[in-house]
Amino acid sequence: MRFFLTSVIKIIPVLFIISFIVFFLVRLTGDPVSLMLPETATDQQREDLRNSMGLNDPVYIQYLNYMADVVRGNFGDSYKYNEPALEIVLERLPASFTLAISSMVVATLIAVPAGIYSAIKRNTFIDVVITGSSVLGKAMPNFWLGIMLILLFAVHISIFPVSGSGTIMHLVLPSITLGTAIAAEMTRLIRSSMLEVLGAEYIRTARSKGLLETVVVNKHALRNALIPVVTIMALQTATLIGGTLITETVFSWPGMGQLLVQAVNARDMAIVQAATFIIAILVILSNLMADLTYRYLDPRIKYDD
Amino acid sequence: MSEPLLEIEDLRVRFRSDEGVVSPVNGVSFQVHEGETVAVVGESGSGKSMTSLSILGLVPAPGEVYDGSIRLQGEDLTKMKRSQMRKLRGNEISMIFQEPMTSLNPVFTIGNQMIEVIRLHQKLDKTESIQQAVTMLDLVGIPEPERVLKQFPHQLSGGMRQRVMIAMALSCNPKLLIADEPTTALDVTIQAQILNLMKELKDELNTGVILITHDLGVVAEVADRVVVMYGGEVVEEATVDEIFNHPVHPYTKGLLASVPKMTGPVEELGAIKGSVPTPSEMPTGCKFHPRCPIATDLCKQVHPQLEETTPQHFKRCFHTEGGVKHDEHERSTIS
Amino acid sequence: MVTKTEQPNEQALDVNNHSAKTSSSQSKKWIKQLLKSKTGTVGLLIVVSVILMAIFADLIVPHSHSETNVADRLIPPFWMDGGSSEYILGTDNLGRDILSRIIIGSQVSLLVGISSVIVAGAIGLSLGLISGYYGKWIDQVIMRLVDSFLAIPNILFMLIILAVIGTSLPAIILVLGVTTWVIYARMVRSETLSIKERDYVKSARAIGANDMRIISKYILPNVISSFIVIATLNVATTIILESSLSFLGLGIQSPDVSWGLMLSDGRDYLATSWWVATFPGLAITITVLGIIFLGDWLRDVLDPKTK
User: Fold this and answer.
1) For a pLDDT cut of 90, what percent of chain A falls above it?
2) Do A38 and A142 share a structural domain?
3) This model's pTM is above 0.80
4) Within an 8 Å CB–CB cutoff, is residue B88 touching chain A?
5) Does residue C293 lie within any of the structural domains?
6) At what angle do helices C169-179 and C220-248 cross, to 10 degrees?
């Protein structure tokens, strides 16, 4: 519980800094009034609007007002959709979640067996192939892999739709694109973690008990090897979300990532702000989850506090 | 004497790598009888641990047993299939390792790890195996065994963990127990308790014990017979009284001379300079000659054989009492 | 007296000789080690060729990279039907030679990759040293700043800043630098924390060495090898980030050439002309692969403990 409190206390300044950065970035975009009024508007009309929006107040007052809004979940209306920005962002969240989760499933299905196998077959041909593919996976830009998958499986052999959403088929290519990118890093982590664990003395104990090698590897070694892997992967949530930005754009997947890229390009700052806050909160929550999972996986931690 | 429980003959282990071949074990032979404790003594690097791993068939890759035999009640373990070998491990032959802190898996409960081996080798259902685990923990003197079963290794002290290791090793009633430095990592009072426990259990269960150690204090306390190893071979073998009262080999004498200094896991020998050469740098002739106070030119050129000086006392040295012996005194021809 | 003053000199000379000898044998050892590692050698070859390609780009391009030629649009690579040896890798939708554009595009990739790593490295190194060395409240402030940067995906951060300040080559370099410094800061901080506690640093402080001296003489040299390894590997990351930005429309803008931008152009012609999007991606992948190989080799040589 104490751990939980200290983590929460650490989060507050982080959210504060983020709000600060976002506030100033948005103020820098230029005069929102010029976007909101027609070009024919008079100077008086512009000035009135500025006054009513509080844009003529001192900066710190503006920031306080802004924070008061943010705390209430009010990020302003999107000028493109004419709706509260937060609602639009939240509407897109489920689609992004679906993609993120199915990508993690793809990544786990690839990385766990590949990582284990290349660790137990260290320095053999199969290890070289697996490690090589994981390096290649890291070297390939995500969006290019997506485009190549479209080229192969949607254009040349029309198995999957090129883009869009709606059916499970639409989910396959984006999940593979994002999933393999995650798998590349995960495989490497599992391999090195497994190699370390396989040299541990409790593995020798397990073997000396006469256990099958598969039990030694999949029970005794894997459980220990996963502890650092889970933690590091959870800490990469930001990267995962960054990946959805690109993958959703490539496949026109109607999630938050695609919305964000479009909003940035259209300078729809209300949406950008709302989405950035949501993402930051998601990342911070998942880091907290990572800590909790770590504590769950490693019984040593709980009692050491 | 009755047929030995374990008979190791001319055991050789080698590791092949790009840099060449090294052999940490070079023709080791000794026997263990039922209910007998044989101490294998030597500094680190003498090949004693590799010998014990060979018995279990657990020499780490790329190492291999390439010659010799290990017979358990007449059956050669080196020729066994992997699946047959697995049935013996933890069942007929058990092992206790040096570091109780790291030898138990940190993420599983004591119960999980104990019941695992009991269910594997004995046809018991879950409640029966829990009962067996409780009995074993009770046997090794752990209070509140039911509670300990639910605990994780890190919640127990070092001495308790080593008791758990012993309970686990004995839970299938093995014929042979190999204990690799079982007390080195423990403090002195706990050491004595664990050694006493091992002695009691051995007498009770009539188990043959191989005790691997560099600690002659431990040897004096529990061993019946002592095998002294150096450079991957046996250099002296005798009963515990013989070794302590009439040591023959200069290496054994050196080990004994450094006993009083022994207060913890110190692997340095006060009376003998230097340390065991690595297997790739083994000298020709007698392997001990660079460190030997009485070495001559003969020792540098000719490799001495293991020979019997007095009945049941073997040594591998040219210069100590009895002088140069002939081949008919070789141990293999006697036994 | 004379001998006494000469002795230290001799010693100094001796030390110099010794270090000269070791540094030349050191570099020989490095080359030997490099050739022993197949991937390291391949990585070096790739990186050197890309650098040469970028430097001599204007001399080696077979065609103009920007001149459009609608008559020759979407010509396939030379081995396909309708391909010509004139355009080895084919042309894009405006009839521009893809090979020439890839060659010119290497300039942007390397320039952005290397300069933004310098920017990020400088920020990260200084903040990491300050944070690790001085600790206390300044460490807290910097670490919360790090946490904040970690809570926002790099790519999103960059998109927002670029949307606000507008895109240009210097802006992209700056933005990449400002958003990726965190990794260096964390690494330098944790290394500094452990070096700070070593006996030789403590004794240097005890005899009165000031902070600047301790940092430059004891801490920096110990941090630098890990730093070089991470910086090298991050050139690869930034190249991918730049191409992603350009792909999303907020990076390099036409008529400048970037591999990411070429890919983005090619996306619309996937159905008919696969080569437009394929080759630039291949160029990125090969370059990044080369840098990763080289970086991994550097890690093995310079910083084996982080393996």
Assistant:
1) 37
2) no
3) yes
4) yes
5) yes
6) 130
